[in-house]
Specification:
Number of strands: 0
Shape: elongated
Strand content: under 5%
Radius of gyration: 21 Å
Structural class: mainly alpha
Order of helices and strands: HHHHHHHHHHHHHHH
Amino acid sequence: MKKRGLIPTAHTFSSLFSACTKASTPQHALRHVEKLLAEIRKRIANQDLEMNVITYNAAIQALVICGNPLHAFDIYQEMQDNSVEPDGHTFSSLLAACSFDKVEGPSTAFKLLEEMKSLQIQPDIYVFNSVLKVMRDFKVSTEERRSHLSKPLPSADVTEETSCVQDPAHRLNEETSGSESSELNSEKSALQVGNNDDRDLQLHHYFPGVEKFIQIMAVENVSPDVRTFHLLLYMTSSKEEEDYLMELMRSCNISPDATFYNTLIKKKAAEEGVEEAKVHV
C-alpha cells in the first residue's frame, strides 16, 4: 500500500489491528500492534490521520488479546486526549483488561461502570457479565495465591511444576467465543475462599453483594441471563444468598444449565462436604 503511495486511513489501521488478534503467535502480533500504535501517534502529530472510536476500540482489543492488557488503559487515555468519545464496545474491552489486573481489577471495573453512567452510555448484559468475570477472576487469583503460599517448599531434587495460568490471548479468545471450559478448570480454586485474606476484604469492599448487584442491573433495565447467575454463584457468601439466587432464577424463567450445576456441586462439596453436594446431583 505504501509502495503505491496510498495513505492509510483509520479504517486501514482497524483492519490491521483485527488481523493481529487472529495471529497464531500473540507475542509476535503484539510487536506489530505496538508498531501500528507508534505510526498512528506520528500521523496524528503530523495531522495526517483522523482517528475514530472504531479504530481505538480495535487497538484496545488487540492489546488485550495479544498480551499487554494493562496498556489498553493508556490507549483509552490517548483516545480521550484526542477528543474521541468511547462507546459500549470500548468499555467491554477495558473490562476484559481488568481481569488481568490482580490488584486493582475489581475497583477499576466498578469505576468504569460509573464512568459509563457519567457518559450516558447504557451498559448491557455483556458489560455486567464482564464486571462479574473480573470479580470471579480476582477470587481465582486470591485462592491460587493463598494455595501457593501454603505449599511447602520443594526439595532440591523435585522439579517445580510449571504455572497453568493462561496467557491473555487464550483467555480473552475463550471468553469471546463463549467457551466455558477454562472456567471449569479454574472452579476449584474459586469456590472456597477464606475470610482472613486482605484481598478478600478488598473484593468485598467493591462487590455490593448478589442482591444489590441484581438491583443495579434492574436500574439499567438489564435482565440477567444464565451466565450472569453462573458468575454470581461464585460470589455468594452464604446459603441465604445461594437460595436467593436459585429463587431469582426461577422467577426469571431461567433454567440452570450443566455448567451452573457443576459449579454448585463443587461449591457445596468444598464448603459442606460430599453428602451435601449429592443433594444437587
